[in-house]
Amino acid sequence: MASPIIDFLLTRNSAPIPELKEPAPSDADIATMIAAASRVPDHGRLEPWRFILYRGQARVEIGRKLAALAEQREGPLPENRHNQELARFSRAPLVIGVVSVPKDNPKIPQWEMFLSGGMAAMNLMIAANALGYGTNMISNWYSDVAEGRALLGLAPQERVVGFVHIGSYQGPAPERPRPDPAKLYADYTGPWKA
Ligand SMILES: Cc1cc2nc3c(=O)[nH]c(=O)nc-3n(C[C@H](O)[C@H](O)[C@H](O)COP(=O)(O)O)c2cc1C
């Protein structure tokens, strides 16, 4: 049966971040994307995620802070690396941080909450794509550094799922090698034997 959703899923890919241009998604489009992102499997309905919008001048200020943090950690940076840090959040017109917010729960492990965040990020990207935007999610060094997460607005117990870069994009995006799906599944043959 012909299905535009299957057609989309079998061809979707990420756009190169430098090619994500203005116009950024409108507030109404952002609201739609977040609604889709929050409609994901979530064991115990804990809502273990939130979303931070980085847009406008805030992206430039973050670049300055990331460059300063990188220098504090690594010493003086070569000019190209300094410029790279300055531009981290300014390449796309909108970056949405998908943040995993672990909740105390006696039954539900935190790794399930983190997985739910990954699903939220994927739904966010699919919704943005369906609205006509290109997307690309990255984490980068500052996601794994407490000071980096703090300057990006995360609380100490929160973790980065990904920074979804979003913008207008004149595709098609370059294809990259994909796994052969036929090699990825098999019928169950009993317990694992080493
Ligand atoms: C959790 C996560 C973090 C990622 N972080 C980075 C990153 O820091 N830098 C990078 O170049 N790509 C990163 N990637 C890969 C990009 O998203 C990549 O462009 C993407 O996987 C392309 O795949 P697609 O075309 O199937 O969307 C990350 C991917 C995932 C799932």
TrEMBL record:
It comes from the Bacteria. Coiled coil: none annotated. The keyword NADP applies. Keywords: Flavoprotein, FMN, NAD, NADP, Oxidoreductase. Its EC number is 1.-.-.-. Residues 171-194 are annotated as: Disordered. CDD domains: YdjA-like. This is Putative NAD(P)H nitroreductase.
